[in-house]
Design brief:
The structure is a single chain. The chain is α/β, with parallel strands linked by helices. The protein has a single domain, classed as 3-Layer(aba) Sandwich (Rossmann fold), CATH 3.40.50.850. Helices cover about 35% and strands about 15% of the residues. It contains five helices and nine strands; from the N terminus they run αββαββαβαββαββ. The strands form two sheets. Strands 2, 3, 4, 5, 6, 7 and 8 form a seven-stranded parallel beta sheet that branches. A two-stranded parallel sheet has the order 1-9. β2, α2 and β3 form a beta-alpha-beta unit. α4 runs parallel beside α5. The relative contact order is 0.18.
Amino acid sequence: MLAQTLVLATVLAAASGSAVGANIVELWDQVQAPPAPKLATPTVKAGSTALLLLDIEQLTCNQEGRPRCVAAVPAVARFLERARTAHLPVFYSNTPRGSRDTILAPVAPREDEPIVKSSVNKFTGTKLDDLLKARDVKTVVVCGTSASGAALHTATGAAQLGYQVVLPVDCVTGSSLYEEQAAVWSLINGPGTARSLTATALDSIKIE
C-alpha cells in the first residue's frame, strides 16, 4: 500500500510540473488549432426544413464591430432567395434591443415570416419551437451572429430539442476569426450537437 501511495505521489508531482498539470491560461500560447473540418454537401427537404436567420441586425452586424458579418450578408441573401423559392419557411430573431426594422435590408423579413426576440438561445422564452413544430420542421439551417452567441446557443438548443442542424460556416460570423473557429469547433465536436449537426457552406446545400 505504501509503495502504491509513493508511486501515485510521484506521478502527481510530475504532472503538476508538466503541461498535463498546468491550467489552460498558463498554456494559452501553446495551443494549436486542430485540423480544419471537412465540410459536407447536404441535401435538405423543403417540406421539413426551415432557415433560421439570427440577429442579422444593425446593432450586431455592422462594419465597426463585426465586419465579417456585413461581408457575409450578400451570400446569406442569395441563400435566402433560394430558400424562399423552394418554399422553406424562414424564421428570424432579434436581440432584445432589435426590431423588425433593424434587420439588415438585404435579408429583411417578409410580413408573414415570424420573428422571435431573445438573448443567445432563441428557443428560450420564445415560441420558436412551437412555430417550427407547427410547420412540421425536422431540420434547421442556422445562420447568424454572433458565432459564440446566437449561432452557438441556438444551434445547441435546436439539437437538444431533437432537430437536425445544418451549419453553413460561411454565415456564422463573429468579431474575430478565433471566435468563429472556436464556435464551429465546439458545435462539430460538442456532445450536445456532434450527432445532430452537419457543417457545410451555403452554396453546398441542395434543396429538394
